[in-house]
Design goal:
Helices cover about 15% and strands about 45% of the residues. With about 140 residues, the chain is mostly beta strands. It has an eight-stranded antiparallel β-barrel with strand order 1-2-3-4-5-6-7-8. Strand 5 and strand 6 form a beta hairpin. The termini are far apart. About 15% of the residues have low confidence.
């Protein structure tokens, strides 16, 4: 009987060790990776083709920064967006250095395209826009 108890103990311990996972080796995919890069923009508001570059926000692990959003150009305050899975959301925030223009919107990634709906308010006009970003 003591042999079967010892055998049971050894089996239990072996199964316990096998079931333990080395969590240090787990490297979950960063949802932002699929959004990074340069994108061609087809937008209903500006009706001009242009490009944006999406980069990781170095200050927040769930955010990206959309450079040249709404064709604002270099040196202007670009919006950040929050990424969760295939969804991307721009919370209401001020863009441009004029501190007056606000933006808010959301999009969904489908392979190499992001379909967007957003609004831009420059203090005088409210623009309701849709856009398709196509990855280069």
């Amino acid at each position: 009987m003591s042999k079967s108890i010892n055998l049971f103990g050894i089996l239990f311990f072996a199964l316990f060790l096998i079931s333990c996972e080395d969590t240090d080796s787990i490297n979950p995919q960063d949802d932002r990776d699929a959004f990074l890069g340069t994108w061609n923009v087809d937008e209903t508001c500006l009706r001009l083709p242009y490009q944006v570059t999406i980069i990781k926000d170095p200050t927040n692990s769930s955010q990206v920064i959309i450079n040249n959003f709404w064709l604002i150009g270099p040196g202007e305050k670009a919006p950040y967006a929050i990424v969760a899975g295939s969804r991307i959301e721009i919370p209401q925030q001020v863009i441009f250095n004029d501190e007056k223009t606000t933006v808010k919107g959301s999009g969904i990634l489908n392979k190499k395209e992001i379909e967007w709906e957003y609004s831009v308010n420059d203090g005088a006009d409210l623009y309701l826009c849709t856009a398709t970003y196509e990855k280069i």
